[in-house]
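Q: How would the structure tokens look for this protein?
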Amino acid sequence: MQISDFRQSLSEAAPPSTLAPPLIALWHAGKGDWQCAHAVVQEEDDTDSAWVHAYLHRQEGDLANAGYWYRRASKPMFNGSLDDEWAAIAGALLLPKRQ
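A: Here is the predicted structure in token form.
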């Protein structure tokens, strides 16, 4: 899936069924549903989910908590806009994983 397809899917009522939990959370965040997005990543224990979790706490304005999750994800805290970070995370997570 390309990021343009992912963005377009935000017009649907539910996320595409093929998405992994971090992308499902990012999809909900893109729809403006922080609570649902947070509930999804809170149940996961992988670095991609931690990255989305960090973004969500940055969006919330809780930078100390965001910092914790960025460290768990081994990612630096993003310095750009929230929209730019959403797109950067989505683009990275949509790339095919190397084996």
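The longest helix spans residues 47-60.

The helical segments are 3-9, 21-30, 34-42, 47-60, 63-73, 82-94.

Upvote if useful.
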